[in-house]
Amino acid sequence: MSNSPTSIEKQKNEIELGIIGMGDMGRMYANRLSQHGWKRISVCDLPSNYERLQEEFKDTSINVLRDGYHVSRRADWIMYAVEAEHIDRVVAQYGPATKIGSIVSGQTSVKQPEIEAFERHLPNDVHIISCHSMHGPNVNPKGQPLVMIKHRASQEKFELVRNILSGFESNLVELSYQDHDRITADTQAVTHAAFLSMGAAWKANNQFPWLLPHFVGGIENVKVNVALRIYSNKWHVYAGLAIMNPSARIQITQYAKSVADLFKLMIQEKEEEFRSRIREAGNFVFGSLNDDHVPILLDDRLLDEFSLSNVPSGSIREPNSHLSLLAMVDCWYTLKLNPYEHMVCQTPLFRLWMGITEYLFRKPEMLEDAIQAALYRKEIRSDDMEFVTCARGWAECVDLGSMEGYRKRFESTAEFFKDRFADSAVLGNKMIAMISKNIQKS
Ligand SMILES: NC(=O)C1=CN([C@@H]2O[C@H](COP(=O)(O)OP(=O)(O)OC[C@H]3O[C@@H](n4cnc5c(N)ncnc54)[C@H](OP(=O)(O)O)[C@@H]3O)[C@@H](O)[C@H]2O)C=CC1
Ligand SMILES: O=C(O)C(=O)Cc1ccc(O)cc1
């Protein structure tokens, strides 16, 4: 089949698209694909949600079916958009009903369990081409990476999936599922671990960071808004992509170790060792060897406007150790990872995280303030101490593979911050729009 505009229009009229799981991502896909002109879209969630979904979509062309059997037996392209934790069970249930010759895809954030489920439960006569939008359901997909994984498929079917996804205007990136999981362990799992640890540490100290001078203004606003954004979302998304991805455990464990190692040097005031460790790590990630990457060029002052605090930021800026950022760079150095090579799978949150880390390391006076604060500002030690404990706690939870433990830890901190979720979502959306503006250039 050719890819001329007329053949794509023909596909839009003839090809039936199916979505199993009408949560946030399933809905986003169904609504957008319908807006892009795909005429035949069938969707389902759990049978218990059938009537509610039917009512919700009654004035649209989206066809709500009772369950995944009904979707699987008729659709030419089927996307599973369910919890990663449930992918094996759901594919085992509906996979055998997949229509001969159709294409099966998944939206889960970690691909090894998804591909294994497909291989285990799908008939041999169906194609497997998975995908992953590297952003949340409320972010504009334009220009954001959208990973495609051609696992078991003809080129013709791959082109069809390309056509289906092309309306998102995302940056289509082809990867193997192994590379996807290795890279997203860094762009997502470790990034989330850092922000989850910040939130848990603030809670452990009974602090609302927007009320404290050393957490207000500039890059501190990113820490606060992103941490709150993560805690306002569904725990299973973060738990799944951390616990079910074997590379994520290694990286999160190293992150917690880097946090602890640096903290030990700080409290012993081992200045020379601390400095040389930061210098070596900084040179590895941001030094001349990496000159071919495109810097994110986030400016601390640009970030001043995204504050949850009522206090004007300029007047109250106080130095912080930035232990979370120093440890991130130490972790990349120790694992010999180049985060710029991971930009193919960047999410808006990773871009913000990289942006503030890069900013700190490229601003000698700011880095020097952070090093001085880390070694000698004793009044912030209690904050850093809690951060160390929480980073270790999250790493242990992921290493133990406990979804239930993860849920409890996540929800107790979410509860502490819930009154500010709405305000931080507004600021977070603005920050993401700002950081996504120059995404195409990287
Ligand atoms: N949210 C995000 O930012 C992103 C998420 N993803 C990934 O996409 C997937 C979906 O995430 P998201 O939409 O946020 O999560 P949601 O919890 O909003 O959606 C999952 C949906 O699947 C439904 N479901 C569970 N079992 C079945 C079943 N047997 N048949 C039909 N439907 C079922 C759930 O129903 P119920 O709730 O009633 O159990 C729920 O409505 C996850 O794997 C996530 O990792 C990928 C990119 C971004
Ligand atoms: O940007 C992030 O890291 C998010 O928190 C949103 C998100 C969550 C899960 C994904 O698989 C992709 C994006």
Walk me through what this model shows.
- Residues 15-296 form the Prephenate/arogenate dehydrogenase domain.
- Pfam families: F420_oxidored.
- It is built from 18 helices and 8 strands.
- The protein folds into 2 domains: 5-175, 3-Layer(aba) Sandwich (Rossmann fold), CATH 3.40.50; 181-441, no CATH class.
- It is elongated, with a radius of gyration of 23 Å.
- The relative contact order is 0.11.
- The longest helix has 28 residues, at 177-204.
- It has helices spanning 5-14, 24-35, 50-56, 68-72, 87-94, 111-121, 155-166, 177-204, 219-232, 235-243, 246-267, 271-286, 323-335, 348-362, 364-376, 381-400, 403-417, 421-436; strands at 16-20, 40-44, 62-64, 77-80, 103-106, 127-133, 145-152, 171-174.
- Strand 2, helix 3 and strand 3 (62-64) form a beta-alpha-beta unit.
- Helix 13 (323-335) crosses helix 14.
- The protein is an alpha/beta fold and 442 residues long.
- The chain starts with a helix and ends in a 6-residue tail after the last helix.
- An 8-stranded mixed sheet has the order 3-2-1-4-5-6-7-8, sandwiched between helices.
- It binds NADPH dihydro-nicotinamide-adenine-dinucleotide phosphate and 3-(4-hydroxy-phenyl)pyruvic acid.
- The site of NADPH dihydro-nicotinamide-adenine-dinucleotide phosphate has 28 residues, from helix 2 and helix 10.
